[in-house]
Amino acid sequence: MRFLTTGEIATACQVTIPTVKRWIAEGHLTAFRTAGGHYRITDAELARFQSAFKMPKEPVGQPRILIIDDDAQLLDSLVAALSWEHGYKVEAAQDGYEGLIKVGIFHPHLLILDLRMPGIDGFHVCRKVKSDPDTQSVKVLAVTAYPEPNARDRILEAGADGFLEKPLHLEELKREVARLVGGARG
Fold this sequence. Notes:
This protein is α/β, with parallel strands linked by helices. It has helices at residues 6-13, 17-25, 43-52, 72-86, 96-106, 122-131, 151-157, 170-181, and strands at 3-4, 32-33, 39-42, 64-68, 89-93, 110-114, 139-144, 162-165. Helices cover 44% and strands 18% of the residues. It is globular. The mean pLDDT is 89.
């Protein structure tokens, strides 16, 4: 049995988180609250709900990856490599602000996150994602072309789960992505 967040339910049902919370409040979807007050729904309850309301089920086994980097050429290359070769569902954002919005909509299992971007940098994005109960389980792979002496330590302290320096070597990136999304499903 797996416990799902309202964000995961929203993604599976292709609706917003407030819609999921309304379903819970109206008694259509059974949930319990964590000690922190956040809803959790069992995977069996999701299956029952989708069946009762004749909802299509999201394909299982397709981890979602969001790449946030201000280098458009690198974004295109990574999206192509990870989606075509490995079947990951991949989205991209060109800055931290757009990335944070997409985290809330796309509900990725993994963020591949550039540290140095204009506006909101990768350190801020990582801290924001890891401090929110609805997104703290998202894995973060930080990447940078400009490693400061303590960049690795700082981003790992902010909650990142991995760190790579650019230029990225595709085989190394693929291994790290596979390690981080290992058990992620739909």
